[in-house]
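Handout, section B. The chain below has 534 residues.
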Amino acid sequence: MPRQWKWLAVLFLLATAGGYWLARSAAPDPAANSPPPREIPRPRAKADTPMPVFRSSDRSPTAKRDRDALDAGAVANQRVIAFASREALEDFLARAGDGIRLLGRLDALNAVRVSFLDVDALSALLDGDEELSMIYPVEIPMPGPVGAGPGAVELGSGLLEWLGIAGMDPAGQGVRIAILDTGVFPHGSFQGDITAIDLVERSGDADALNGHGTAVASMIAGNSRLAPGVAPLASLIDVRVANDFGSSNSWLLAEGILAAVDAGAQIINISLGSNNDSALVRSAIEHARESGAVIVAAAGNQGTDRVSYPAANPGVIAVGAVDATGNHVAFSNSGKIDVAAPGYRVNAAWPGDMAVNVDGTSFSSPIVAGSLAWIMSTQNVGPQQAVNLMNQYLNDAGPAGPDPTHGGGLPALDRVATGDTPGVRDAAVASHHVIPPGPGSPSPMLEVVVQNRGTEPLLNTAVTINHPGGTTTANITSLQPNAVQPVFVPIPISQYQSGSPLTFDTRVHIGDGTPDANPANDRRIDVHHPEIDQ
């Protein structure tokens, strides 16, 4: 059996591991009963956070605990110092005494990482022109207290169909994408070369390998029927910044961004997150942007209205998670979201030529990174032009227009491919969005979002909505390409308060009798569970 297909018949994992989930089998299970959940032990260990080592004779009698770092959750007795010039950096190192240890330097940012005995002694060496910052933990996004929510629909192996590119030629040729993660390990679904840069040493123990980075990479470059990637011909740059426990820190993340830029990365994917905003990482992001690279990052899985860093940093594309129908999944963080992509039960590769079913914004992010690579290679554009094209043809989701859970919408690569094709008429039911009762509206409302996903204006689009209160019809007189139009329908308060699921069924029909280019999106059925509004 060829190696690239061997993994189709191997054991599939059902597990919970750290900040992402390995869900049920990605292949049809002929057994009558699913295997019981199996927890993968994940001991906590921080990556590359050595405490300063000094001789006892070096220790100052006035040395004290680094309370500021401990209170901030940062690495104690270590700081990052960024200088205004290389000369200032070298002058500091020349003046530093035995109480200061150099742990690393990033010349591109004129920054050093030092350990110290006494923070006051360190401060005495500085003249105030430097930027002093802490080193924060960076981890695989941790699971929060909520799951995906009732009614979430799994994606499985349907990624290419979801993006609208099933059956098209493989894409990504000539595009270089860096994966900053736990490492990308050999797998039969990867066809191209992978350049490895190890900022964290790789374990020799195959059983200890953390497959997070491999699964992330397969969203981009997987080339198999079971777990296809968006741009399998792309060249991967594997920058290992996290250890086998999925743990890293802001220094390693900044170092990884610089290493990716030096290796020629045009797109950088970061499926890691932190609660803290690092000045050093911000500088590395700006350096990458100045080089022309685009950075895509996971929003996090806590189910809060606060996006993790670096996704929350300016200049980074923050990606939230949706299910196969484009509905927000409850565990995905919201707030500063730019775009959303599938992150619920998505098929992925795993070390050992295995395949798994995964959840989390960790996997939504590389779907967007891979989409940018697809656009770059098929439309012959650069990274930022690819971002502009993706944003121009997003499928709306959630409430009409940009919102905190979906950002601008969902990638639609089929629309990018036909964006310059005249005569395309495509009316679509984009979403059903329930607005709970509130101070401004004592009754719940259903917002039905209709979108023109074609290239020609639509005239007199008929909308028929079946809902718990009956049937409502509407007419949208004119709808320009890419534009959205909401239609609002009251929901009977008694049915909303009953707690029973509410079913919405909407159809659209182009009024002038012109055939619709994509009849599949003319009808949408959603089931809403009122308890999720509480």
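Note. Confidence is low (pLDDT under 50) at residues 1-19, 23-45, 49-63. Compare this with the example in section A.
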